[in-house]
Design brief:
The complex is a heterodimer of chains A (about 250) and B (about 270). Chain A is about 30% helix and about 25% strand. Chain A has about 250 residues and is α/β, with parallel strands linked by helices. The chains are: A alpha/beta (about 250), B mainly alpha (about 270).
Chain lengths: ~250, ~270
Amino acid sequence: MHEGRPSLRVEDLTFAYAGEEHVLEGENLEVEGAGLVTVLGPNGAGKTTFFKLILGLLKPLRGRVYLNGEDVTGDPARAGVHASFVPQLSAVRKDLPATGVEVVEWALRGYSGEERRRRALEILRSVGAEGFAGKRLSSMSGGQLQRVLIARALARDTPILVLDEPFSGVDPRGREELVELLSKLAESRMVLVSTHDPVLTLKRSRLVVVFNRGIRAVGTPDEVYELEMLRKAYGPGVLVIEKCLHVIG
Amino acid sequence: MYLDPRWFAVMLGSAAAFSALSPLVYARRFNFFAASLPHAALLAAALGYVAAALLGGSPAAWAVLLSLPPSLLLVLLLHKGVSEDSATSAFVAFTTSAGVAAVYYVLTSFPARVSLWSYILGDPLLAGWEDAALAVAVAALSIAASLLLLQKEVSIGLDSDFSSLSGIRVKLHDYALAALLTLVSVSLLRAVGFVVEHVALLLPAAISSRLARNTREFLALSVLPSLAAALLGLLLAVQLNLAPAAAYGFVLLAAYLISLLRGGGA
């Protein structure tokens, strides 16, 4: 099991894809300790790009990223020591004949043979995926595949877990169950989750980062779940109807 | 019906070699590369003759050596951000133009010593013991490489970001796979031929990806039908006086069509 208090520090982070406008410009963020951190923003806000910068999968034009105090800027192998990743379902190829058990086994280090298989099944059981883990990925529902991908990320045993839009492609009941699972995982890890739905993880989050082509606000759910705050990310589409906030369009 | 053991060695060796690499091609979506590779292999074979005639040495060794730079350059272009379509177009434009020029030069300058027809059509029936040994050795190399690489290549194919975070050097794997495919293609071009090489590399995994239930079966169901197709193709070719590589290609195609009827998989 990982030790120490997980931390994420982003300094002056600036990024743009070739020939396009900046997605981030001079962004700073510091988060420390276990808990669920929701990165909230509409589709196309650049949340995936932000996560890829944090994980060293993209190199920023300027700025640094530190995970647990180590500089991991543009270095995924080094970032992978501290953080694991669950990509969007659409980013995973499902036509390859791999089973859930196999992908978790491949992510494990320091195990071999039967011991590796046993450990993989143990992790799959911990996320409620043991019933379908022997199936091909192409035969799984969105919620089932998401659990297998979470198990694969847990197999890396890192103190930070990054999940990109984990609720997309998952049915409403599956979403509720996923939120439960992520809350449980966040008791001992820093779990960063991106979502465009402001309601799903709000009550369970320790911190919410409002994001739209840059960090617009950071705070506790109570601080951020305000009309003006949400409008920073979603624009005028946020309305108060019957004393409740609604994101329209 | 006379059947020479060398024919079997060359046909089965070639089928095993290509079909063992086929799942790697499928997993990494290297189909664009595999489809354009025979052009580069034909160019390398022709240049190998020219280099051997001018500088001495074995044409086959020269061919292997000369085939690698264009393939690695193609991978480099992709890593530099050139789109797959553009890079492949440039690669095929260069290798086909240069290949035709080189073949023309060889045919007009060394007509008595060289038959390039076998490189285009494939002719295992002309194989000597040296060709048979080469086919078996290349098959062993391909199977060993596939057993060693398949898990990582499928991992990268599933999700390259997670693989990078796990410490897998994805770019290095790109170069290694391109080099391996080039090496095998050039080595076995004469047995299978320029035209059918596409089929031998691409169809086996198209079949097994539909039928396999896991990654181990992915490799096994790529190699076994391909071996059966090579055996049946050779027997049909000898019996009916057909081109062996073509008969192999047709049987493999039939196997693919049957796999479509079976459904399942991808």
